[in-house]
Amino acid sequence: MASPLGTFIWCWTIYGDILTHIHRIARQYSYIYALLKNYTYLSKLREYFSYDMYRWAVSVASTRQNYTLDDNCQLLLSMIPVMDMSNHQNGTTCVHYNTKLKQIDCNTMNDTRNNEQIFMFYGKRTNLEYLIHNGFVPNENNPYDTYILKLGTSSLFRTMVTE
């Protein structure tokens, strides 16, 4: 179990990343809203284009995106219907691009019976990425959880070191 201090430090360090994410969404909204002002034929759309609706749409899209491969085996962001109905569980990747059939194959991680949950591995993500892009932090130990801790020094320290 994580210590309260460790939890506090994790929460504090991700705060900046979450604010950056929110700031990007606000900037995108402002940019699009300004563009809509230039097109009179879109005035009805502008009437209903609110920050709350845009934020919701970004959240829906970003929590349902999946990396897949295209025909050239290059990573491609995709939205796959029904796939977001399965729940996350650590394991191995169960979504593959079938080059022969040119389709996405998704297999369950375990045998399932009627009325049981279907699980899939959402991918090698940090807890911060799960929080921002999926809206949750896994309850189980996440072997891919890392964080780049940004450290700085004061100008006084830099002056003392150079003298």
From TrEMBL:
Keywords: Methyltransferase, S-adenosyl-L-methionine, Transferase
Superkingdom: Eukaryota
GO terms (BP aspect): methylation
Sample GO molecular function, one term: protein-lysine N-methyltransferase activity
PANTHER family named among the record's database cross-references: ACTIN-HISTIDINE N-METHYLTRANSFERASE, UNCHARACTERIZED PUTATIVE METHYLTRANSFERASE
Listed name of the protein: Rubisco LSMT substrate-binding domain-containing protein
SUPFAM superfamilies, per the entry: SET domain (SSF82199)
